[in-house]
Amino acid sequence: MASRIRSWLTDWTVVGPLIAVLALVLTWGRKLPLVVVLLVALCLAAAVLAAVHHAEVVAHRVGEPFGSLVLAVAVTIIEVGLIVTLMIGGDAKTASLARDTVFAAVMITCNGILGLSLLVGAWRHRVAVFNAEGTGGALATVATLSTLSLVLPTFTTSRPGPEFSPAQLAFAGVASLVLYGLFVAMQTVRHRDYFLPVKQGTEEHADPPKASAAWLSLLLLLVALFAVVGDAKVVSPAIEDGVSKAGFPQAVVGVVIALLVLLPETIAALRAATRDRIQTSLNLALGSAMASIGLTIPVIALASVWLPGTLVLGLGSTHLVLLALTVITGVLTVVPGRATLLQGGVHLALFASFLFLAVNP
């Protein structure tokens, strides 16, 4: 028993998240020198890798698509809490924080993670194969949620500017939550087989971990994700300074932080793609996009009762074009249920366009 405890305490997947949380507690709200920022960044990287490990342990225990759902929902809940906290204590610059964060998450997941997964899967296995039924339903839900929450505010007339009226915001929040709940029910119960890998990877032959190990990994996963989001916030002032000195727009800060927060999903999706489990990768990508909208907008709608200032949700013309092109390209990618290097390259080109236009609008 004693040797097991010593082994547990020296395991990097346990120690890493705890050290990352300790770094968060010691540095939160303080102005940090560059050396300390770099140390926090190393702790953040350790927490990301630990989160991926524990997510895979939980996924092996509960099976797909529950494993992908756990990681996507867990990181989104923590991310939503961070957004609300920043908006409560922020100034006029935070009016578009929710919009920028959600849109960045959509572009990162639907083009970056999805494109990388297809590229890796097709490179290693010639053709990436997945279930068109489940992936198509997920993409349709993401497109609908994005339009309701990010596109319509640009064209409504009840309020000046790209804003919802209180009634419109309440409707968008309820609709987003209902759609997300309906999708989760279809994914996990009624049509679960639509979201299972077409090809079973070699890790399926290993015995699943014990229930106690899975619960411990779930707890450590939440700790690791909390550390990832918190440490990303700690290093954000250094990122803001770097962005300002480089002459980039302020929105680039949100993109960088979103990239850091979504690292666990990115690494988990790539590892699944190398094992020819493309469906798991797509579940992670589209599930993260859906959770980011379906959970963020309802919480923001509720929090807007006491949040100061305005809430800008509508996208500008450039981002509207990128979102429309992402949806059209996604449909053409998903419908055949098979993808080659070309489809992965197209989505990565869209992702690169998003990053370039964020820096040079």
UniProtKB/TrEMBL annotation:
<feature type="transmembrane region" description="Helical">
    <location>
        <begin position="210"/>
        <end position="230"/>
    </location>
</feature>
<feature type="transmembrane region" description="Helical">
    <location>
        <begin position="167"/>
        <end position="189"/>
    </location>
</feature>
<keyword id="KW-1133">Transmembrane helix</keyword>
<feature type="transmembrane region" description="Helical">
    <location>
        <begin position="341"/>
        <end position="359"/>
    </location>
</feature>
<feature type="transmembrane region" description="Helical">
    <location>
        <begin position="102"/>
        <end position="123"/>
    </location>
</feature>
<feature type="domain" description="Sodium/calcium exchanger membrane region">
    <location>
        <begin position="217"/>
        <end position="358"/>
    </location>
</feature>
<dbReference type="Pfam" id="PF01699">
    <property type="entry name" value="Na_Ca_ex"/>
</dbReference>
<dbReference type="InterPro" id="IPR052946">
    <property type="entry name" value="Alkaline_pH_Ca-Antiporter"/>
</dbReference>
<feature type="transmembrane region" description="Helical">
    <location>
        <begin position="135"/>
        <end position="155"/>
    </location>
</feature>
<keyword id="KW-0472">Membrane</keyword>
<feature type="transmembrane region" description="Helical">
    <location>
        <begin position="35"/>
        <end position="54"/>
    </location>
</feature>
<feature type="transmembrane region" description="Helical">
    <location>
        <begin position="312"/>
        <end position="334"/>
    </location>
</feature>
<keyword id="KW-0812">Transmembrane</keyword>
<dbReference type="InterPro" id="IPR004837">
    <property type="entry name" value="NaCa_Exmemb"/>
</dbReference>
<protein>
    <submittedName>
        <fullName>Ionic transporter y4hA</fullName>
    </submittedName>
</protein>
<dbReference type="GO" id="GO:0015386">
    <property type="term" value="F:potassium:proton antiporter activity"/>
</dbReference>
<feature type="transmembrane region" description="Helical">
    <location>
        <begin position="12"/>
        <end position="29"/>
    </location>
</feature>
<feature type="transmembrane region" description="Helical">
    <location>
        <begin position="250"/>
        <end position="270"/>
    </location>
</feature>
<dbReference type="GO" id="GO:0015385">
    <property type="term" value="F:sodium:proton antiporter activity"/>
</dbReference>
<feature type="domain" description="Sodium/calcium exchanger membrane region">
    <location>
        <begin position="34"/>
        <end position="188"/>
    </location>
</feature>
<feature type="transmembrane region" description="Helical">
    <location>
        <begin position="282"/>
        <end position="306"/>
    </location>
</feature>
<feature type="transmembrane region" description="Helical">
    <location>
        <begin position="66"/>
        <end position="90"/>
    </location>
</feature>
<dbReference type="GO" id="GO:0005886">
    <property type="term" value="C:plasma membrane"/>
</dbReference>
